[in-house]
Amino acid sequence: MTTEQFDNCKQCLNRKKGVSEEENICNLKGKNIEFENTCKDFALDNDIVLGFQNKINAIKPNLQRANRAQLLIWLVSAVDIISVYSFYLQYELLCSLQNNEYVSDQIISANDTRVQIIGIIYLIVFFISAFTFIQWFRRAYYNLNIRANCNHSESWAAGSWFVPIISFFRPYQIMKEMHHKTTALIKSNTDEILDNSNSGIGVWWGLWIITSYFGNYILKSSFKAETIEDYLNNTIAQIVISIFGILLAVITVMMIKSYSLKEEKISELEKRKKTPENLD
Question: Does the predicted TM-score (pTM) go above 0.70?
Answer without folding.
Answer: yes
